[in-house]
Amino acid sequence: MKSALLAAALLTTVLGSHAQTASAAFPYEADGATAADASSEYLAAKARWHNELAAFARTDQQQFPPPGGVVFVGSSTVRMWKNLAQDFRQVPGIVNRGFGGSTMADCSLFARDLVVRYKPRQVLVYAGDNDLAEGRTPLQVLESFARFANAVRAELPHTRISFISVKPSPSREHLMPLIRETNNVISAYLNRLPDSEYIDVFTPMLGADGRPRPELFRSDRLHLTDEGYRLWQSIIAARLPAVGPAISSVPMPMPLPMTSPAASPP
After folding, report:
1. Is the Cβ–Cβ distance between 104 and 111 less than 8 Å?
2. How far, CA to CA in Å, does 209 sit from each of 11, 184, 205?
3. Packing angle between helix 138-155 and helix 176-191, nearest 10 degrees?
4. Which is deepest, 61, 74, 155, 241, by most CB within 10 Å?
5. Per-residue pLDDT for 245 more than 50?
6. What does the alpha-carbon distance between residue 113 and residue 33 come to, in Å, rounded to a whole number?
7. How far apart are CA 182 and CA 142, in angstroms?
8. How high does pLDDT run on average in the chain?
9. Range with the lowest mean pLDDT among 26-35, 97-106, 110-119, 182-191?
10. 82: number of CA atoms within 13 Å, CB side?
């Protein structure tokens, strides 16, 4: 009960904050954003992830993904999913935009660069454990996710937003209480949003003893083995559209609650 009340309190804090326009918070130069639009944190993140962003740009120049696909974005767990498109071959237009070591805060800053520009029908984001490892709180992760979701929904109101739960890595077992809390508050947040979902990979990755299943992780006790990815594939596959209507024909969802303009990634 106490954790449920805490989750409700954190959720109320975020939903009660003032709104901010996505264009000012998430500048994208190719869209004609001015220098005044670009926040210092965005520019710092862009410099930090220059090589990864440049690699994505080169890939897009070779073959730009058609609209209406499915974008996976997030940290190294996404980046290292080499067979992502093959594992979901029944789904047209799979795009992998994972960049290793990234945080939910980074994903929120690059929402337009790595998601909006592809005009996907669905986006799945995996991030948050790096934020916690760097000392951020579950509420800060929630706020970053809300900014990410707001930036996507502001320009793509029909796009489905899916959050893949933070996984229980053995190397970060000391963070388990924070991981559970993060998953709980984001799940509660998503329950209030239309056309969105929380995908629970956390629970199936625990053994009967309540601890992370070691066979799902590599020797670094952080990243997934092939067996780990097979488990994720089995859980996520049912959440993806094999075929369906174009984005323009999907019913308009209700407006997404917005977050504080003053909140920024720590």
Report:
1. no
2. 30, 21, 11
3. 30
4. 74
5. no
6. 12
7. 7
8. 84
9. 26-35
10. 4
Residue with tokens 């490892």: 133
Provide the pLDDT for residue 38: 55
Instruction: State the pLDDT confidence band at 33, using cuts at 50, 70 and 90.
Output: very low
CA angle 120, 123, 127 (to 5 degrees): 150
Cα→Cα distances 123→43, 95, 158, 177, 187, Å: 24, 9, 11, 27, 16
The Cα angle at residue 103 between residues 210 and 180, in degrees rounded to 5: 25
Q: Quick one: pLDDT at residue 31?
A: 46
For residue 213, the model assigns a pLDDT of 98
Q: Does residue 144 contact residue 105 with C-beta atoms inside 8 Å?
A: yes
> Taking the CB of residue 142, how many other CB atoms lie within 10 A of it?
25
Question: C-alpha angle with apex 124: 189 to 120, nearest 5 degrees?
Answer: 115
Q: Is the Cα torsion angle 180, 101, 79, 40 positive or negative in sign?
A: positive
Looking at the DSSP assignment, which residues form a beta bridge with residue 163?
125, 198
Of residues 239, 266, 259, 59, the one with CA closest to residue 164: 239
Percent of the chain with pLDDT over 70: 76
Distances (CA, A) of 109 to 98, 177, 232: 14, 26, 26
CB atoms near residue 19 (< 10 Å) = 14
pLDDT recorded at residue 5: 46
User: Is residue 263 predicted with pLDDT exceeding 90?
Assistant: no
Strands (E), the chain: 70-74, 94-98, 122-126, 160-164, 196-199
